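Entry 14. Ran structure prediction on the chain below.
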Amino acid sequence: MNIHKKFFSKIGANYLILGIMAIVLQIILVNIISVTNPEYLHDINIVTVISSLCNYILPFPIFYWLMKKLDDVEIEKAGVSVKTFILYTGITITLMWIGNIAGLIITMLLSGAIQNDIANPVQELINSANIWINLVIISIFAPICEEILFRKFLIDRTIKYGAKVSIILSAVLFAFFHGNLNQFFYAFLMGGFFAYVYIKTGKITYTIILHAIVNIMGSVVSLILANSVTNIQINPNPIDAVIIIGYVAIILSFLIIGLYGLTKIKKARFNGSKTQISLKNPFKTVYLNIGMILFILFFIGEMVYQIL
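Output, structure tokens:
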């Protein structure tokens, strides 16, 4: 195995370890709570907090130690105008919708093939949890942690191989790490775009904000919208009508902006100096190694387990 293939194998292995640690820690905590305070496991809000701790906080020291063993490169920082950030927001929301539609179609076809409904665990969690838990954990805490893990740590160490390698790898790892088919497609698209934004700006703050906007739309705004739709069917009132019309207007506006922005992204070019090492066979080097293969197989297994 050459030095570059070995490097990406370590990357894959590190993220595999992160995923395994999250599951093991959750099993340990759930078993401890089931013995001490079993009633807590019936509270979806407490379960959400436990899941966040196990996914991000508790495994972080070991993951940080593993990633620090790999050399990183500081990305040149650049600010963006308000106009550009609005464009980025539109692209993010557009990719979210495209990914959601793709995921919905695939899961519907698969559900029909296996004659069994494929549950969306994240949507079930959002619908069941307290709206403040959704805001704090899903809309703020998760974006911060995920952008550090899948953009900052990953791209700083892989950008020497070029922007395209970093962007696609960030998208792939981010999509598989979600561990379910419903989220795979939009996580892939947005993960790649967030990687693009981070490489262009060198500022993780921008991707955290974009990520938070998406999660707020999906976990907080969606609940408010659903409540307004239900209310207006039972007892029509102007407040709920304004909420629904306002939501549709905002989404349509950002979709138009996003579709326009995607045409500009195709023409975007990164500074060639960012590519310090050119790979002769990028796919084989980056993905066909023991670490990456085990990572992908592990999360495919998790997806299949959830489907069955």
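The CA atoms of residues 89 and 210 lie 6 Å apart. Will compare against last week's run tomorrow.
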